[in-house]
C-alpha cells in the first residue's frame, strides 16, 4: 500500500502497529473460540470452524498450533494455568497448615465444579496424548511444590514426620484428582455438593498425612 507525506507515514505506522497487534491477539482469539467450541461440542471441534469464529484463516490457525491436537493442548494449558494460579500454587492467607490446606481443597473443588471445561478435560480429553503430556508436566510441578508444603506441615506437627514428603504429596494430589474426576463423571444433579466432596478429599488427606502411628 503506497503512502506519501508525514501524515501518510503516520498512517502507515499505525497500520503496521495494528497488523502486529492483530498477529499477537490471533492465538488468544483462537484459544477462546476453541474453548467455547469444546464446551458446545462436548470436547470436539473442527479447525475450520474455529478459524472462522476467530476471524483468521485456517492456515494461520495451523501456523500457530500445528494441528487440532495442538490447539486443544493450548486450551488445556490455559485451564491448568488458571488452576495453578488460583488454587495449587496460590499463597493462601492462612498460616496454620491444616486450615490452609483444607481451604485449598475447598478452592480446588469450587474451581473444578464451576469451570465449564473441567469435566471435559478430566473425562473425555484426558486420554489424548497431548493432554496426557500436559497433565504429567503439571503433576510433576505440583508434586515439587507439594514436597515443600509437606515439609512445612511436618515442621508444624500437622504431618507425620515418618512420612516421605514426596510420596505423601504424590498420593494426596493423585487421590484428590481421582475423587474430583469421579464426581465430575456424574450428571450435575447427581454430584456430591462442593462441601461434601471437599470433606471427602480432606478426610483422605488427613488419613494419608497422619502416619501409621497416629
Task: Describe the protein in words.
This protein has helices at residues 5-40, 47-54, 58-65, 68-88, 97-114, 118-122, 129-156, 165-184, 194-210. The protein has 214 residues and is mainly alpha-helical. It folds into two domains: 1-66, Arc Repressor Mutant, subunit A, CATH 1.10.10; 68-214, Tetracycline Repressor, domain 2, CATH 1.10.357.10. The chain contains nine helices and no strands. Helix content is 75%, strand content 0%. The termini are far apart. Residues 1-24 are annotated as: Disordered. Residues 46-65 bind DNA. One of its GO terms (molecular function) is DNA-binding transcription factor activity. Keywords: DNA-binding, Transcription, Transcription regulation.
Question: What fraction of the residues are assigned to beta strands by DSSP?
Answer: under 5%
Counted by DSSP, the helix tally is: 9
CATH C-level label of the largest domain: Mainly Alpha
Q: What's the story with the biggest beta sheet?
A: none
- The domain tally reads 2
Number of distinct beta strands? 0
Protein name: Putative transcriptional regulator
Region (Disordered): 1-24
Keywords: DNA-binding, Transcription, Transcription regulation
Domain HTH tetR-type: 23-83
